């Protein structure tokens, strides 16, 4: 059984957002914005669904302008359905350039506070 990397799983999660942006260059501001948006939504859903704290998800929903709220709601639903088993927060999430010039996305998983109380 192959275990997906955190960065690979996260890229699959934000795919609708990347598609909406016509798959921007990984070193662009648009890609950085997509990562930050996806990171915020992913972690807000974990805080709500795993830790039982709805405040972050409510804040995200209230802060998003109407035209973007459809995509935000889609990503929230996507996390809760297609990625529900991935019950971890995403800590560091950034584009890195390797010594050979290859550009990669690095992301690490963090255990939610609810899991630490068990």
What would your notes on this structure say?
This protein is of the alpha+beta class and 118 residues long. The chain has one domain (6-116). Helix content is 55%, strand content 14%. It has six helices and two strands; from the N terminus they run αααααββα. It has helices spanning 6-13, 15-20, 29-49, 55-63, 66-82, 113-116, and strands at residues 89-97, 103-110. Strands 1-2 form a two-stranded antiparallel ribbon. Helix 3 runs antiparallel to helix 4 and helix 3 crosses helix 5 (66-82).
Number of DSSP helical runs = 6
Number of strands: 2
Beta-strand residue fraction:
5-15%
Mean of all residue-level pLDDT scores:
91
How far do the termini sit from each other?
Answer: 27 Å
Give the secondary structure arrangement, pairings included.
Blueprint: H1 6-13, H2 15-20, H3 29-49, H4 55-63, H5 66-82, E1 89-97, E2 103-110, H6 113-116
Antiparallel strand pairs: 1-2
Helix pairs in contact: 3-4, 3-5
Structure, briefly:
Strands 1-2 form a two-stranded antiparallel sheet. The protein has one domain.
Annotation keywords:
118 residues, alpha+beta, 6 helices
